[in-house]
Amino acid sequence: MISVSGLSFTYKGASAPALNGVSFEVPPASVYGLLGPSGAGKSTTQKILMGLLRGYGGTANVFGEAPARSGRAFYERIGVSFELPALYGRLTARENLALFAALYADAPLAPEAVLDMVDLRDAADQRVEGFSKGMKMRLNLARALLNDPQLLFLDEPTTGQDPARARVTRQLISDLRARGKTVFLTTHNMSEAAQICDCVGFLVDGAIALEGTPADLMVRFGKPELVATARRNGTLVTETFAMDGLATDSAFQALLQTGDIVSLHTREASLDDIFVAVAGGRQ
């Protein structure tokens, strides 16, 4: 779906390139998360993939060809949801979607259908100027779904949403993948990326510093330890044991015999831990 090789780009007047040899691939029906600190080049990469920036080095192909050469038909096949919603405040949610649907040659989904998908049907006839930030973000996502796109570019899709609404949005993204859609996601929410991405790439100083599945990376950067939580005298206590010596560790074996264990888990790294390890102190 997306193939990027040796991608480089330098803004006019800049002393250093925004992108410096970026390479990755995104297969169909998957969620790819481009992660990294602010200024790493995530937005630049997105703009190139959406055909909004030219003059780059290397190759960037979407649907098998360079986006900048694809013409209007390219935008009939993609959906875009920016971090800052682009909506008309004096129009209702339904009116906003009807307006944007009219921009497509063929918008197969009705406003009511996409409002249902983002759980905004009850607010269909309310003016957007009265929406919370989270509601605007959900409406922005609904707008990106109007043309039933094959490829979605999502930037911080759950910004401003409470945990329940954010869970609905993550489930929607998973449902879209199950329907064969491809999602290119940029976010600073590492927990979210770990839950919904099939593969993540950490972009640091204009290059992919690390790439892999969240599960593999969390194991790779984790510690070979087992964390045991047990209840003793009505209090929960935690002990850590080396994985390679569990069979002969007398303290661990004694703990197993007590029957007081509440939980056991290996010490994987979180994507937050990996972000810090890869990006250092960058924000």
Automatic annotation (TrEMBL):
| Keyword terms of this UniProt record | ATP-binding, Nucleotide-binding, Transport
List, for all copies, the residue spans of the domain called ABC transporter.
2-230
Q: Which family does it belong to?
A: Belongs to the ABC transporter superfamily.
Q: Extract the InterPro entries matched here.
A: AAA+_ATPase (IPR003593), ABC_transporter-like_ATP-bd (IPR003439), ABC_transporter-like_CS (IPR017871), ABC_transporter_ATP-binding (IPR050763), P-loop_NTPase (IPR027417)
A Pfam family of the record is ABC_tran
Any one GO MF term held by the record is: ATP binding
Q: What is this protein called?
A: ABC transporter ATP-binding protein
Q: Does the keyword S-adenosyl-L-methionine apply?
A: no
Q: Which domain of life is it from?
A: Bacteria
Q: Which SMART domains does the UniProt record give?
A: AAA
